[in-house]
Amino acid sequence: MLAKIHVTLKQGVLDPQGKAVHHALNDLGYNEVRDVHLGRYMEIELEGVEASEAEARVRDMCEKLLANTVIESYRFTLEPQN
């Protein structure tokens, strides 16, 4: 099973990297860009777990290590692997 995880800052949390990218894009002439939010993307391969258990395990991984839930949100999908 493949877990695809996206971690982003919560609304209202300062995103200095996003602001830097936003300004750089504007400087390059992309004036239509109004805001940029950066985050992290991870793929984790899981083995030997059923789909129902995999969901709980990935959520636990996110809560304990992969996301700082005070300032970050996360979402994930699970896909079967061949």
From TrEMBL:
Subcellular location: Cytoplasm
Reactions accelerated catalytically: N(2)-formyl-N(1)-(5-phospho-beta-D-ribosyl)glycinamide + L-glutamine + ATP + H2O = 2-formamido-N(1)-(5-O-phospho-beta-D-ribosyl)acetamidine + L-glutamate + ADP + phosphate + H(+)
Keyword ATP-binding: yes
Signal sequence region: none
GO biological process, one term: 'de novo' IMP biosynthetic process
A GO MF term: phosphoribosylformylglycinamidine synthase activity
Key words of the record: ATP-binding, Cytoplasm, Ligase, Nucleotide-binding, Purine biosynthesis
Pathway: Purine metabolism; IMP biosynthesis via de novo pathway; 5-amino-1-(5-phospho-D-ribosyl)imidazole from N(2)-formyl-N(1)-(5-phospho-D-ribosyl)glycinamide: step 1/2
GO annotation, cellular component aspect: cytoplasm
E.C. number(s) listed in UniProt: 6.3.5.3
Keyword Ligase part of the UniProt annotation: yes
UniProt cross-references to InterPro entries, sorted A to Z: PurS (IPR003850), PurS-like_sf (IPR036604)
Family: Belongs to the PurS family.
Assembly with partners or alone: Part of the FGAM synthase complex composed of 1 PurL, 1 PurQ and 2 PurS subunits.
Physiological role: Part of the phosphoribosylformylglycinamidine synthase complex involved in the purines biosynthetic pathway. Catalyzes the ATP-dependent conversion of formylglycinamide ribonucleotide (FGAR) and glutamine to yield formylglycinamidine ribonucleotide (FGAM) and glutamate. The FGAM synthase complex is composed of three subunits. PurQ produces an ammonia molecule by converting glutamine to glutamate. PurL transfers the ammonia molecule to FGAR to form FGAM in an ATP-dependent manner.
Name by which UniProt lists this protein: Phosphoribosylformylglycinamidine synthase subunit PurS
Naturally occurring in which organism (per UniProt): Nitrospina gracilis (strain 3/211)
Gene from which this protein is expressed: purS
